[in-house]
Amino acid sequence: MTEHTNKQFDADLEGVRSQFLAMGGVVEAMIQDSIDALTNGDLNLVDKVREREKDVNRYEVDIDQRISYILARHQPTAIDLRMLLAVSKMLTDMERSGDEAEKVATVARRIHEAEIRATPTVDLRHMANRVLAMLRQSLDAFARLDPVQAAQVVRSDKEVDKEWKAALRQFISFMIEDPRTISPSIDLIFIARALERIGDHAKNMSERVIYMVRGADVRHTGAKNAERQARGEEENTETT
């Protein structure tokens, strides 16, 4: 490549990175607002989440087009190619995280507008804060090309899964003990499930960061192996 072409290539790559991080910031705000709408009853936040979901969709289309342009024009190799392929996959997870946040906001509106008194008291804020932290950490790992931090996110997903199962057991108990809680319990199960899926998407993106930096595909190989690969150690097929 000529020096001019190199500079343009670097600028195009940085444009993709910057846009993806900006998209992640919008999704973070959506998750926070949807949980605030649930806990505080501020239904104006629901409308904000829905507007931001449109921004997320625009980001997805624009970044996808940028990646296609770079691949066609520059034919990148090695880590640059892995970065573009990783972001291409991460886009889907980020967009779906935004979709889940919108679902939480929509159900939050339904719960508060229904004004049902027999609402089960299960605090989902801890679970929400955990998945929000996972998303932030995955974005930070991407920005700093830090596979070790990405592996920590993969490990954190196990705790989110435990919280989801514990919440589900609580809701089932409420519905058995008091049939009046069935409708709101189902709504809250829907929210807990959406949060659990956001955690899954954050984990998926973190696995892509490890692939981007180390060139190792750690999907379906377990958290321990992801941590080994992140540190640059030999692959282990143990699925724990």
Automatic annotation (TrEMBL):
Classification via Pfam families: PhoU
Region feature Disordered, mapped onto this chain: 221-240
Entries under Gene3D superfamilies matching the protein: Phosphate transport system protein phou homolog 2, domain 2
Segments forming a coiled coil: none
Keywords associated with the record: Cytoplasm, Phosphate transport, Transport
Presence of the UniProt keyword Cytoplasm in the record: yes
Composition skew (Basic and acidic residues), residue ranges: 221-234
GO cellular component, one term: cytoplasm
Compartments in which it is found: Cytoplasm
InterPro entries in the cross-refs: PhoU, PhoU-like_sf, PhoU_dom
GO biological process entries: intracellular phosphate ion homeostasis; negative regulation of phosphate metabolic process; phosphate ion transport
Domain of life of the native organism: Bacteria
Domain PhoU, first and last residues per copy: 22-106, 124-209
Family according to the record: Belongs to the PhoU family.
UniProt cross-references to PANTHER family, sorted A to Z: PHOSPHATE-SPECIFIC TRANSPORT SYSTEM ACCESSORY PROTEIN PHOU
Chain's role: Plays a role in the regulation of phosphate uptake.
Assembly description: Homodimer.
Name this protein carries in UniProt: Phosphate-specific transport system accessory protein PhoU
Organism: Bordetella flabilis
